[in-house]
C-alpha cells in the first residue's frame, strides 16, 4: 500500500495558439477543468498502475472539492484522509500552447491549511510500503510527514518529488530515502547544470536519486554505487503536463512490488510515455494493463 501526502488542485486548462503577453487578450481554442495537483496526480497514477493508495490532504468547501474527491475515488484511491476545510480548494491555472509548452499559476487554497499528519493519517502512513511527498503543501507539514515512518519503525520508504523547486531543509533530507527531481529541479537544488553531476550531488544528500530528463529519459543513482540510464520510450508527445507525476507514481508502485532499480525505471518510463500521448493530467494516466502491454 502507498500513501500520498500532498496537494489536490483543480486544473483550469486553456488551450491556445500562444499564451497572452501582459495587457493582451487572446482567444483560446478550448477550456477544460481537470482534477490535478502533484499529490492527487501521483495518487491516481499509482492507483492506475496497480497499487492500493491512500491520499492524505485537503480540499476546500467550494464547488471544486467534491470533484477532486470523486476523481481520486474513481481511480480507486482511499479518500478517508482527505479533509474539507473552509475556503477555496487549490487551483492551478494552466495555459497550454499549441507547441505543447505550458505555463502554470498554482493558488494553494486548502492545500495551504494542511498540517503534519496525526492520528489515523499517521497510522495510515505507518502501515504503508511507501510514502510519496511533493512540495505543494506547507514545508512544515511535509517535514513532519517524512518523519512519521521512522518514528514508528514503519517499513515505508519516503519518496520525495522536490517540486515546485524550493530549498530543502536538512530535517527533510535526513528522512528521505529516494528523491525524484526533473533536470531543472535537480539543477536548482544542486547548482549543477549537467544532470549527471546533479545526480552525484543529490547522492550526497539522500541514499537514492532519479533525475528525469523529459524526452531524453531518466538517470538513477544509489549510494551503493549503482548508476543507470533509461532512455524514454519514443512517442509523439501532445501534453507533458503530468509526466513527472505519472513517472513518480509508477516508480513507487514498481518498488513496492519488489522491482529492482532497472525494472522500476522501465516501468515508470513506460507509464510516463503513455501519459504524454494524451491531453490533461489525471485524465492521461495509464492503467496497469496498458503499461504491461507496452513493456511486453
Ligand atoms: P516533469 O514532468 O516533472 O517535468 P520530465 O519532463 O522529466 O518530468 O518527464 C518525466 C518522465 O516522463 C521522463 O523521465 C520520461 O520517462 C517521460 N517523458 C517525458 N516527456 C516525454 C516524451 N516527450 N516522450 C517520452 N517520454 C517522456
Ligand atoms: Na498528459
List keywords for this structure.
296 residues; alpha/beta; UDP-N-acetylmuramoyl-L-alanine:D-glutamate ligase; nine-stranded mixed β-sheet; four-stranded mixed β-sheet; 11 helices; binds adenosine-5'-diphosphate; binds sodium ion
Q: Number of folding domains?
A: 1
Low-confidence stretches: none
- Mind telling me which CATH architecture this is? 3-Layer(aba) Sandwich
Topology pattern, helix = H, strand = E: EEEHEHEEEHEHHEHEHHEEEHHH
Helix content range: 25-40%
> How would you characterize the largest beta sheet?
9 strands, mixed
Give the topology, please.
Layout lengths: L1 E4 L3 E8 L13 E7 L1 H11 L4 E8 L3 H11 L3 E8 L4 E8 L4 E6 L11 H8 L3 E4 L5 H8 L1 H4 L5 E4 L9 H4 L4 E2 L3 H8 L4 H8 L5 E5 L5 E5 L4 E4 L12 H14 L4 H16 L11 H8 L1
Helix pairs in contact: 1-9, 7-8, 9-10, 10-11
Structure in a nutshell:
This protein has about 300 residues and is of the alpha/beta class. Helix content is about 35%, strand content about 25%.
What would you say this structure looks like, in words?
This protein has a single domain (2-7, 37-89, 110-295), classed as 3-Layer(aba) Sandwich (UDP-N-acetylmuramoyl-L-alanine:D-glutamate ligase). It has helices at residues 38-48, 64-74, 119-126, 139-146, 148-151, 170-173, 183-190, 195-202, 243-256, 261-276, 288-295; strands at residues 2-5, 9-16, 30-36, 53-60, 78-85, 90-97, 102-107, 130-133, 157-160, 178-179, 208-212, 218-222, 227-230. It contains eleven helices and 13 strands. β12 and β13 (227-230) form a beta hairpin. The mean pLDDT is 96. The longest helix has 16 residues, at 261-276. α1 crosses α9 (243-256). By secondary structure, it is α/β, with parallel strands linked by helices. The two termini are 25 Å apart. The chain is globular and about 55 Å long. The strands form two sheets. A nine-stranded mixed sheet has the order 5-4-1-8-9-10-11-12-13, sandwiched between helices. It has a four-stranded mixed sheet with strand order 3-2-6-7. Sodium ion is lined by residues 239, 241-242, 275-276, 278, 280, 284.
Amino acid at each position: 500500500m502507498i500513501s500520498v501526502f500532498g496537494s489536490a488542485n483543480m486544473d483550469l486548462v486553456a488551450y491556445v495558439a500562444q499564451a497572452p503577453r501582459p495587457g493582451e487578450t487572446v482567444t483560446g481554442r478550448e477550456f477544460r477543468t481537470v482534477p490535478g495537483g502533484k499529490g492527487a496526480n501521483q495518487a491516481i497514477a499509482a492507483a492506475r498502475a496497480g497499487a492500493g493508495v491512500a491520499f492524505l490532504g485537503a480540499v476546500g468547501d467550494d464547488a471544486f472539492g467534491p470533484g477532486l474527491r470523486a476523481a481520486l475515488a474513481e481511480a480507486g484511491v482511499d479518500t478517508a484522509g482527505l479533509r474539507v476545510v473552509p475556503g477555496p480548494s487549490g487551483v492551478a491555472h494552466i495555459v497550454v500552447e499549441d507547441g505543447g509548452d505550458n505555463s502554470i499559476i498554482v493558488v494553494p487554497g486548502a492545500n495551504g491549511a494542511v498540517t503534519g499528519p496525526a492520528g489515523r493519517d499517521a497510522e495510515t502512513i505507518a502501515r504503508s510500503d511507501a510514502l510519496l511527498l511533493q512540495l505543494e503543501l506547507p514545508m512544515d507539514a511535509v517535514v513532519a510527514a517524512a518523519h512519521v515512518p521512522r518514528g514508528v519503525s514503519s517499513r515505508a520508504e519516503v519518496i520525495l518529488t522536490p517540486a515546485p523547486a524550493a530549498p530543502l531543509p536538512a530535517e527533510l533530507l535526513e528522512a528521505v530515502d529516494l528523491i525524484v527531481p526533473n533536470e531543472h529541479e535537480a539543477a536548482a537544488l544542486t547548482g549543477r547544470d549537467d544532470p549527471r553531476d546533479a545526480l552525484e550531488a543529490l547522492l550526497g544528500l539522500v541514499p537514492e536519486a532519479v533525475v528525469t530528463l523529459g524526452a531524453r529519459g531518466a538517470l538513477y543513482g544509489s549510494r551503493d554505487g549503482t548508476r543507470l540510464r533509461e532512455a524514454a520510450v519514443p512517442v509523439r508527445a501532445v501534453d507533458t503536463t503530468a509526466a513527472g507525476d505519472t513517472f513518480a507514481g509508477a516508480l513507487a508502485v514498481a518498488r513496492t512490488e519488489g522491482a529492482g532499480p532497472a525494472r522500476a525505471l522501465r516501468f515508470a518510463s513506460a507509464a510516463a510515455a503513455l501519459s504524454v500521448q494524451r491531453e490533461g493530467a489525471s485524465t492521461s494516466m495509464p492503467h496497469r494493463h496498458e503499461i504491461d502491454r507496452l513493456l511486453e
